[in-house]
């Protein structure tokens, strides 16, 4: 359709908002983050308002505006978030979606507000309480918790002096069996105890009628000594057992995440309800036709489960990272205390150490993002360069050190497999999975083809440089085979040879030390230099290719000061502690991987390419999926590209530099399988990203190719020397 005639009154002060191309730009550059849902696309121009261009396509409104296709828009709620996004994006390192500042309460959705609300809000109509989550609570906690209250009530009645608490436990037994649609209130008791003397037929001025007996506040049987004796009996016999039970329920429900409302319910019951005098508590079912009694509402729960609790955060930390933090402590204690493997075997300790890397990588990323957000670009670049790849490098270096001490070449081969697996996974699996999941919600997704082209060129350069020594050794190396058999019984016939490899140490290692090793050092210098040139290209001379804008929504509620979750010093302390724990977990993983490599029937290639390569990248995979669901595929693709570029241009040169000061078995000569898999992956990725748009089918192709390569690694024989 032809665009409408612009309104001079509306367009006199700025660009047109209703043209076809502007709507196309808005569809392509869908705002990132939660504010993108509000439809805010107010970009901060790079030029003064008086000289800013009115629109991207005023002359040819029916044509697709190329500048819109290659535009990358970053949205932020405040200056700190904008600084975090800008620094991390420009420097080209991993993107962490988590906010480093506390978001205003009024800006959050109703779903998120419900997650953080206390269980003391009485709704007008809560709907039916018979839900799957509530039934799950009954089966997991409700029946035995209610039975425990009945037993404690019997004990309190036997002590006689604890009878008031026995009556309370009896009522709480019915409450915790099915707490949904019921309310616990704290009521005020008159000083003259008129409520106890009025009898059963006392009138309620609020309800206008007699108060039922089960709704009346409980009364003390006596005062003075009897009061203190009753409280002492409760604190010695009843409260510890119930507090322990509620603590168990709280921890279990919190670890299940979706049952966090049950955890809040148990925590408040143990810390508030059970510590109040019985006559101050009132338990009653809540009906919509009744008016609640006067008094503070302590507990009022309608749902035991909420699937949206995966968004829940504690002080800016995602709930899954909080739940996995005790796993790190268990891993360290079990690994260093039970070194003879009396309690658990090496396989269990290796698995725990590998799983502990996931929350630690999350904390390291959050600390990097927090420091970068509160610092200038130079500090953010230094922090990213220093700690951006600390997770992978820690494991690789500890594995190489252990292999060097034991004289085992297997560790060096596993490190090479992990490097190749990270490269292949981030080029194929991460963007492919993001395309599939994002394509389910969006029929076609577009991304910044120019920036993807720059990343693809860097990948071609880095892969070619990394595998140049390998290709050189294939051309000039001497093929040596371990065992050969004549299959035709003819001296001039065909021979079948096993365990063949190119020997670089022929003639006292002249080929390796005089030719291959200098080439390795040259490549290790050129690759970081090429990466710095790429940064200079994107940051200084050709910034228009990226056209980064920091969007700012000028809406009510957005004029607020940023409240940072972690200060710079706190983030620095967390970063150092997480790095220290990461080193310990990597040491445990390399310590207990040897039995797995020697006793497992699976190829060492497959273990390195899958487990060791992709587990540390799980937080990045989650980030990429979240960006793809928001129709922001550019960041999803660049997450994988940035990691792949880091592997080739930073991690491998650092490992080569490490071998200079600490000699290991690591040489920059890869097997043929690694070379072919990496080359094919980069070529396929560049072909898919050529047109700047994709759908779920193209993502499926990338994922399927990745699984085919995994099958090849699974059936491949173990590398020589293992």
TrEMBL record:
Question: What Pfam families does this protein map onto?
Answer: Na_Ca_ex, YccF
Q: What is the residue range of the signal peptide feature?
A: none
Recorded GO MF terms: calcium:proton antiporter activity
Give the chief site where it resides.
membrane
One GO process term, biological-process aspect: intracellular calcium ion homeostasis
Q: Where is the Inner membrane component domain?
A: 132-182
* Domain (Sodium/calcium exchanger membrane region): residue spans on this chain: 348-468, 571-713
Its topology with respect to the membrane?
Multi-pass membrane protein
Give the source's domain of life in one word. Answer: Eukaryota
Write down what this protein is called: VNX1 protein
Q: Where in the cell is it found?
A: Endomembrane system
Bilayer-crossing residues are 135-160, 232-262, 317-337, 343-365, 377-398, 418-440, 452-472, 519-539, 571-590, 602-622, 643-662, 668-689, 696-716
Matching entries from InterPro entries are given as: CaH_exchang, NaCa_Exmemb, NCX_ion-bd_dom_sf, YccF
